Target: Drug resistance transporter, EmrB/QacA subfamily
Amino acid sequence: MASTDTRTDYRVTYLVLCAGVASFSLLQSMVNPVLPTIEAALDTDQATVTWVLTAYLLSASVFTPIIGRVGDKVGKERMLVVALLALAVGSLLAALAPSIGVLIAARAIQGVGGGVLPLTFGIIRDEFPREKVAGAVGTSAALLAVGGGIGLVLAGPIVDALSYRWLFWLPMIMTLLAAAAAHWFVPESPERTPGRINLLSAALLSSWLVTLLLAVSQGHSWGWGSPITVGLFAATVVLLPVWVYAEAHSDSPLIDMRMMRIPTVWTVNLVALLFGMGMYSMFAFLPQFLQTPDDVTGYGFGASVTQSGLLLLPQTVATFLAGLYSGRAAARFGSKAVLVAGATLTSLGLLALVLFHDHVWHLLIESTVLGLGFGLAFAAMSNLIVDAVPQSQTGVASGMNANIRTVGGALGSAVLASVVTANLRPDGLPIESGYTHGFSVLVVTSALAALVAVAVPVVKVVTRSTADDAPATEADGAAVALEPLAR
Model:
């Protein structure tokens, strides 16, 4: 473990953190395009193979805020190593999985790695010079979207050249190296939140997240009016307020409800929900649109998995470049302005996709605009959250923001699946209007995200006598001091 007396150079720390984030983000999307391949290889059916995605989604949603909070309490570097090792163990098990059941269990273990992102933001805030924090947080946040795009690009060539099992071998190697580097080169955090880990809060949080996401992700196949779907939504309606009440009255809350009520935090979280609906849905459905056989349906481009990934490469590059630029843009214009710009670009790119999608060059321009929007918005959301909360709560606040984006993605994908498949051709493929109507829904959610972003209060970080005090905010030009939250 890196010594706390002689701190590792923050640039070395940053390289290690980026490797961890990249490994997690690759595993989010690499598997999506090759589910039919896995279905055939493991002799299962379509309904069962979708659990390869669902298990990962549920696990990551549960563990992202929990691992972030535990890191705030016991040490971020220590929990970063744990999260990376969970990714590596899950990847090893997935690569060797002899059956679909084992693969689903392996994906659930991989989901523990969701804690990598909030821990990364917390370590950056602890270790980096103040003037470097915005750029570092922005770039590492954008890596999550970049990794998602790269996963779509690499999946086809890897499967063609090797096999689908290498979609897990390669991330396993990356995460093992990242875990070793984190142990040796990432210094332990000087910031700790006192108190115990509230197991009841963790159980309640896990319960309502699982019931909500299970209903949302499986409702399309189970039927939205089926007893199990309705029952899960009803359980969520009961469990969510119980969790909020328990947290609000706990001496040692897992997630401080006072923190969640900070104007900057709850408005950015609302943006995250709406923005996640658009971004993650596009990761799932744009490749499907590109792969639709145009000679049969009259739309689409008949691309292979590999070709559709390559067509989306400009989007990935644009996301990465926007993430790199976001720090300088935030320093000049403010993170709020960057967030508004990112959400606006996303809605414009989606609107263009609805109106113009007949030629490859249309898709290349539109997906590039979307990539710019993704990179800017991801970076800005993370910076706004990091600046708005006490340093001791960076991990859990960032974890909840990432989690809310994931919930938004699950909601958006479910809505889009219902709209796209509402009317099918005799051959089982969606009609063209299914996609245009679905993408139109995402135009609305992205435009709403931009409007909410306009209302996000500007955060002004001030120096306090203790590290656990919250920053002040500026609203309508007047500075309003927040009460200390982490006592």
